Amino acid sequence: MTIRLYGIKNCDTVKKARKWLEQQGIDYRFIDHRADGLDPLQLEHWLGQLGWEQLVNKRGTTYRALPEADKTALGPDTAAALLLAHPAMIKRPLLELDGQLHLGFNAELYSRLFNI
User: Fold this and answer.
1) CA dist 22 to 1, 16, 26, 78, Å?
2) 33: which residues sit within 8 A by CB, 6+ positions away?
3) 40: which residues sit within 8 A by CB, 6+ positions away?
4) Which positions are catalytic?
5) DSSP 3-state assignment of 101?
6) 1 pLDDT above the threshold of 80
7) Strands lying side by side in the sheet with 94-97
8) Burial class for 87, CB neighbours closer than 10 Å (0-12, 13-18, 19+)
């Protein structure tokens, strides 16, 4: 079973997800968007699977700090470039479990995913 958790290490929701995984004894690899960088091909895959509307975190400070022109232009053709420039705008955590993608952390969902 391949388990990867993507996010930013100082995000509270990512911390909760990591703590939950560790408490369950689940071995996973954590990838920090900001520290480790973001692979453009992987981002395209995520966008294809989830869509830009789900992947972009419009409630975060990074999005709110964008110029109004960037917010207005945000769409399927511009999302990848904007997320590559501002990886903190990706909703998090993003859990990749055997090729399936799951956004956010919810203990009940994780329990179901891991049959716990």
Assistant:
1) 16, 10, 6, 36
2) 6, 7, 8, 87, 88, 90, 92
3) 80, 84
4) 11
5) strand
6) no
7) 29-32, 3-7, 94-97, 100-103
8) buried
Q: How high does pLDDT run on average in the chain?
A: 94
- This prediction's pTM: 0.91
d(CA 75, CA 45): 16
In this predicted structure, what is the pLDDT of residue 34?
87
Amino acid at 27: D
Phi–psi pair at 44, nearest 5 degrees: -60, -40
CA-wise closest residue to 108 among 17, 18, 9 = 17
2-52 tens-digit pLDDT: 899 999 999 999 999 999 999 999 999 999 988 998 999 999 999 999 999
pLDDT band (50, 70, 90) for residue 116 = confident
Closest CA to 17 of 114, 104, 115: 104
